[in-house]
Amino acid sequence: MTNAVSILLVDDHVAIRKGLHVLLSVKPGWTIVGEACNGREAIESARAHQPDLIIADISMPQLNGLDAIPRLLRAAPNARVVILSMHDEEGLIQRALQAGASAFVLKSDAEPSLLTALDRVLKGNKFVSPSVTRIVLNGLPGEKNNHRGAGNCGLLTEREQEVVQLLAEGYSNKQVANQLMISVRTAENHRARLSKKLGVGSLSGLIRYAIRNHIISP
Q1: Do both 131 and 163 map to the same domain?
Q2: Strand positions, DSSP E, the chain
């Protein structure tokens, strides 16, 4: 890649995005071409701007960062996704890398590590924060323990993951249908299948599942 680098910022906190503006401003030729506060907005922005880099949080409303990764890469095939998160759980890191992220940087390490991570991934390499390197080495994607701590998320389709998040955020079946542009009956069927697949019989059980798997924040 040339020195000109386009970047999409995805985080539901304005203060974080402003901080990233400041941090990235030291790199000549690097331009922030778009911002988004949730995964859905990010996909549309990625499709419109075709950025080189997408810096995304995990915990966001409507569509979280983990579930957004493969869709972002389909929307912008040449982009590289860098996850910037406060979470350091093994299963979460593995899921992000398995989904296609090129780097995983802890927010607590952002100032010393983020620019290094971005430089690395622009050269086609992977990067993880030094403080979580051991976690990744103990469970790299492809290893037999790579789903440890990931719950049942691997059993859900992309659409089911969307429905889980919206229901857990308090959307009614009708609101889920409107958000996903499907019929209410289809939304109800998704909800019934999710209850059976996840073994939860109530909305509170679905919410607990979503929190455990970092689909929503408590």
Answers
A1: no
A2: 5-10, 30-36, 53-56, 80-85, 103-106, 127-128
Q: What pairing do the DSSP bridges indicate for beta strands 103-106 and 30-36? A: unpaired
Write out the H or E segment, with its range, that includes residue 133: helix 133-137
pLDDT of residue 141: 43
pLDDT of residue 78: 96
- Cβ 60 vs Cβ 54: under 8 Å: no
The first and second tokens of residue 165, run together, are: 């998040």
Give the phi and the psi of residue 99 in degrees, each rounded to 5. -75, -15
CA distance 177 to 209: 21
Q: Which domain holds residue 191?
A: 153-212
Examine the domain organization and report whether 123 and 60 are in the same domain: yes
Question: The pTM is what?
Answer: 0.72
Question: Tell me, what DSSP letter sits at residue 181?
Answer: T
> Does residue 146 sit within a domain?
no
**Residue 108 and residue 62 share a domain:** yes
